[in-house]
Design goal:
With 206 residues, the chain is an all-alpha fold. The chain is built from eight helices and no strands. Helix 6 crosses helix 8.
């Protein structure tokens, strides 16, 4: 007895509709009378609509069904489409190229956002008290970022020099400015890592 194995069947264009519906579309391709073909396709469209009743209120739902009919027929179906019939190129064209931001980042361990924040703070008026506070906060964050990526000890002077360089001399640390100690930063980072690891393990056991 001959068995109809899935591996021996032709590949379905839209598997979500099932093989039976694909066979209906294949049958319509053999109908010679155009009016009869139109009636048969409308019946198939109704069946497709009943398969996804929750989508009936979505805009262009019917339009999508007619497009799917065309796809399942390999765009060979000669009928009176209620919409402009789709063409194969519409579904095979390459996605449009999305331009990637190639702007240079001088210090990747600080990141582009940090450079933007430095630029914003540097534009503040020197008399604005927020500028001095913002400069100190930025320097501390730069130190944390440096240690996250480099895992080395770093002197505050290195951070201050980088801050001055990135801001093109517009931001300078006060002479009495002291940043968070390296040992304290590393302790906090290790604690965060430990908490994050514990949370992930708890999720796995739930």
């Amino acid at each position: 007895m001959f068995k109809d194995y899935n591996t021996q069947r032709t590949k379905m264009k839209l598997p979500e509709y099932g093989r039976a519906l694909h066979k209906m579309v294949e049958h319509v391709l053999t109908i010679e009378d155009r009016d009869e073909r139109n009636l048969a396709v409308k019946s198939i469209i109704d069946i497709m609509g009943m398969m996804y009743p929750y989508l009936r209120d979505i805009n262009d739902f019917k339009h999508k069904l007619w497009d799917h009919i065309a796809i399942m027929s390999d765009f060979k179906l000669d009928i009176d489409y209620p919409y402009d019939p789709p063409v194969p190129e519409t579904f095979t064209e390459k996605p449009k190229h999305i331009p990637y931001n190639q702007s240079d980042i001088r210090f990747r361990h600080y990141g582009k956002i940090m450079e933007q924040l430095i630029d914003n703070i540097s534009k503040m008026d020197d008399e604005n008290p927020s500028k001095e506070l913002g400069t100190e906060q930025l320097a501390n964050q730069m130190k944390k970022s440096y240690l996250t990526w480099n895992k080395d000890m770093v002197e505050d002077e290195k951070i201050f020099d980088d801050l001055k360089l990135i801001s093109r001399g517009r931001l300078k640390a006060r002479e009495d400015m002291h940043l968070q100690e390296v040992t304290d930063i590393i302790k906090i980072q290790k604690k965060k890592t430990k908490v994050s690891t514990g949370q992930n393990q708890n999720r796995k056991h739930k």
